[in-house]
């Protein structure tokens, strides 16, 4: 039990450190300063997702062989290297290289971080722990945002360097993790394991619709609040200072993810998911039709709140549906489905934004409506 509690503490602190992206308030402006267009930015994101998809299953099987601890350590080290690459990037190729490394990390961590948390706290506490894991990542981002505004200022390079330092600290911290599952023996046949896992998952009702709902909801809200928010505020004639204030406020709202489990207790998981996806759709459509700075900020803040509450709910539901021992492999297969949808969604949103920001926001709203229908199908009760 002491080892498991140690795992929880380390994972939560790592979430805090890996949330400290000091360049996040100017993420879009940073890339555009080196000549990238909005479409090129979203194209890089989509390439990252496609590569991550290709690595999902091999990484999931490898995690069962290596053990979750070694997999997590390796991914954290590559994560650190990716931030060093971002620090020195000056072109499309440089930013693409950083994202390709990130794809390796996302595929490797997919399911492993949640599996470590789930195995360390048990099903009864999983929803609450996923909420805190997400919330502490937000605390890190909020802290980094405040330091960027107060200390770093307009020095983009310094913001990227500080980010790399935080990720380096997280990588060192990962060395203290304890294994939660005995690694599979070398005699285990990876392909046979994967096929057996896939057969079981095909009969796990609700898992794939839930994964698709999470992809459409998550990618739409993420793209709108991270990449489109600055474009929307510029559309409302806001300056950089106001954008920084808006970003800090929206980031702080992500702390509400810690209350996701309590919210589910009052509303019920099914009703909560339907309400969050439905509200997100309406908010995207409102953003498409307004040039009011105050209303835009309110909508962005509400979208951040919906996303913060939805992510732990989705993780808890997905983990609860998986009963097989090879949890990381199962979650990787599920992630393969969600990443496919997210990659297509990202390209569509980027292309639409280059043509018209309101059009892209409407597309995001439509995706959230589809997510609502999929969630209602996946979760029939509860």
Summarize the structure.
By secondary structure, the protein is mostly helical.
Structural key phrases:
82% helix, globular, 0% strand, mainly alpha, Growth Hormone, Chain: A, 382 residues
- Beta-strand percentage? under 5%
Percentage of helical residues? over 70%
Give the mean pLDDT.
85
- Biggest sheet character: none
User: How big is the Rg?
Assistant: 20 Å
Distance between the termini: 30 Å
Q: What order do the SSEs take from the amino end to the carboxyl end, as H and E?
A: HHHHHHHHHHHHHHHH
CATH class: Mainly Alpha
3D shape: globular
Q: Which fold name corresponds to the CATH topology?
A: Growth Hormone, Chain: A
Q: Domains counted in the coordinates: how many?
A: 1
Number of strands: 0
**If classified by CATH, what would the architecture be?**
Up-down Bundle
Helix/strand/pairing class, anyone?
mainly alpha
- The poorly predicted ranges are none
Description:
The chain has 382 residues and is mainly α. It has a single domain, classed as MFS general substrate transporter like domains (Growth Hormone, Chain: A, Up-down Bundle), CATH 1.20.1250.20. Helix content is 82%, strand content 0%. Helix 13 runs antiparallel to helix 14 and helix 13 runs antiparallel to helix 16. It is globular, with a radius of gyration of 20 Å. The relative contact order is 0.17. The model has no long low-confidence stretch (mean pLDDT 85).
């Amino acid at each position: 039990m002491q080892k498991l509690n140690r795992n929880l503490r380390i994972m939560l602190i790592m979430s805090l450190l890996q949330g400290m992206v000091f360049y996040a308030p100017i993420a879009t402006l940073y890339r555009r300063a080196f000549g990238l267009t909005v479409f090129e930015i979203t194209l890089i994101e989509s390439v990252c997702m496609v590569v991550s998809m290709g690595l999902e299953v091999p990484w999931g099987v490898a995690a069962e062989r290596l053990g979750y601890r070694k997999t997590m350590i390796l991914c954290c080290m590559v994560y650190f290297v990716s931030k060093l690459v971002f620090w020195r990037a000056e072109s499309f190729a440089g930013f693409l290289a950083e994202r390709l490394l990130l794809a390796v990390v996302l595929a490797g961590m997919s399911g492993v971080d949640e599996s470590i948390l789930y195995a360390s706290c048990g099903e009864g506490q999983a929803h609450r722990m996923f909420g805190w894991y997400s919330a502490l990542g937000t605390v890190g981002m909020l802290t980094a945002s405040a330091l960027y505004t107060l200390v770093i200022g307009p020095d983009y390079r310094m913001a990227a360097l500080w980010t790399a330092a935080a990720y380096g600290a997280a990588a060192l911290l990962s060395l203290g993790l304890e294994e939660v599952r005995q690694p599979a023996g070398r005699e285990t046949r990876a392909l046979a394991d994967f096929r057996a896992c896939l057969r079981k998952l095909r009969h796990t009702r609700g898992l794939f619709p839930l994964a698709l709902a999470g992809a459409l909801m998550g990618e739409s809200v993420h793209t709108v609040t991270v990449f489109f928010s600055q474009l929307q505020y510029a559309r409302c004639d806001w300056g950089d200072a106001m954008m920084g204030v808006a970003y800090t406020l929206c980031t702080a709202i992500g702390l509400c993810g810690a209350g996701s489990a309590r919210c589910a207790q009052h509303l019920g998981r099914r009703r909560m998911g339907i309400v969050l996806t439905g509200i997100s759709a309406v908010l995207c459509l409102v953003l498409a039709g307004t040039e009011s700075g105050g209303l835009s900020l309110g909508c962005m803040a509400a979208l951040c709140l919906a996303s913060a509450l939805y992510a732990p709910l989705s993780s808890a539901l997905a983990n609860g549906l998986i009963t097989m021992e090879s949890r990381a492999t199962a979650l990787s297969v599920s992630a393969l489905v969600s990443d496919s949808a997210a990659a297509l969604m990202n390209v569509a949103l980027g292309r639409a934004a280059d043509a018209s920001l309101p059009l892209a926001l409407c597309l995001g709203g439509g995706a959230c409506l589809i997510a609502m229908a999929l969630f209602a199908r996946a979760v029939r009760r509860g």
